[in-house]
Amino acid sequence: MKRPMPRRSVARVAALALLVLSPYGPATAFELPPRDAFDAMVQRPLFFPSRRAAPPMVEAAPTAPPTLATIPAEGTRLIGVAVDRQGRAIAVLRMAAGSERRVAVGDQVQGWTIDTIGRAGLGLSVADQRAAVPVLGMVPPLPDKPPN
């Protein structure tokens, strides 16, 4: 039975074979050619149908930036909810003035009391009235009070 060669011997034999059999000698570090060597490639790009360089860019006169339409801040908007595995939840509201406010169950928003916070949105109540606000929905105004 033939004995297998030790691994170290196999590695040495392979390295020696590469040195002896390589027509160019041992490998050296790769160096990029000088930048001037690529001038022809820039002047005649490979993937342009005309094989001509792109025309030089001409800067246009500066123009006024486009005006963005402002979204009217009509009220308070529910912009997100977070519910953890234990059922604790908070909601983030964007107020009409643009500020953000974090609220939890039992807090007051524009006269409404927050009864529930779920992944779909908020449950609100005032007196015997109830309302649901979906995520990205607006908090409704308070209902009219009946005359006494």
Would you mind describing this structure in some detail?
This protein is an alpha+beta fold. The protein has a domain at 77-134. The chain has helices at residues 7-21, 39-43; strands at 77-83, 89-94, 100-103, 108-109, 112-118, 121-126, 129-134. It has a four-stranded antiparallel sheet, with no helix packed on it. The chain is elongated.
Question: Briefly, what is this?
Answer:
Helix content is 14%, strand content 26%. It contains 2 helices and 7 strands; from the N terminus they run H-H-E-E-E-E-E-E-E. It has helices spanning 7-21, 39-43; strands spanning 77-83, 89-94, 100-103, 108-109, 112-118, 121-126, 129-134.
What key phrases describe this protein's structure?
single chain; 148 residues; 4-stranded antiparallel β-sheet; 3-stranded antiparallel β-sheet; elongated
Strand-helix topology:
Blueprint: H1 7-21, H2 39-43, E1 77-83, E2 89-94, E3 100-103, E4 108-109, E5 112-118, E6 121-126, E7 129-134
Antiparallel strand pairs: 1-2, 2-3, 4-5, 5-6, 6-7
Average pLDDT score: 76
Query: Percent range for helical residues?
Result: 10-25%
Q: Enumerate the strands of the largest sheet in spatial order, edge to edge or round the barrel.
A: 4-5-6-7
* Largest sheet, strands/sense/barrel: 4 strands, antiparallel
Residue fraction in strands: 25-35%
